[in-house]
Amino acid sequence: GQQLNQSPQSMFIQEGEDVSMNCTSSSIFNTWLWYKQDPGEGPVLLIALYKAGELTSNGRLTAQFGITRKDSFLNISASIPSDVGIYFCAGQLGNTDKLIFGTGTRLQVFP
Amino acid sequence: DTGVSQDPRHKITKRGQNVTFRCDPISEHNRLYWYRQTLGQGPEFLTYFQNEAQLEKSRLLSDRFSAERPKGSFSTLEIQRTEQGDSAMYLCASSIVLGLFYGYTFGSGTRLTVV
Prior knowledge:
heterodimer; A: six-stranded mixed beta sheet; 11 strands; 0% helix; globular; B: seven-stranded mixed beta sheet
């Protein structure tokens, strides 16, 4: 099935560092979403973006909907150990509720 | 508990057996989705329902797979004659449609291992 290109694939950072990850697609999306998944659990929604160019924050997380509507990035500032997990971008196609997910970025935070 | 509930959490089955998973969505949500996630990948869409109507099915949902949502409440996903390639995490999610798309709430998933 179709998956979005997400980079980097994995990141190993020190607590307190900032993190940036992005997601690109060959398709235009109406909505971009970012999810976090912990081992053995389902993904949890972090941020939803609805307009090209939109910049949205949720605590230490900031995400942007790319101008071309084909990309998005997520920044995490001042990382903490509980930020560990896999981060997925997802795009909503057309008028359906179907989401296309990225391949994930695995984040490890060391004290 | 007001989240999406999936049962069982884990299922080990022998190749060729049939399995059925259940999903109870958030009670006021009218849309319910099934996704499959294999190791190291993001979730992939299988099918979704609005109330009891199945609105879309992916090509990933072969003839061995069937999903139902009787009465528009809980849903079941059945896999007949399981194959080793069916081993994956099966995720259920629900949402409510109120104009803007607010994304889904996922359950914790059912991890299927076919041996």
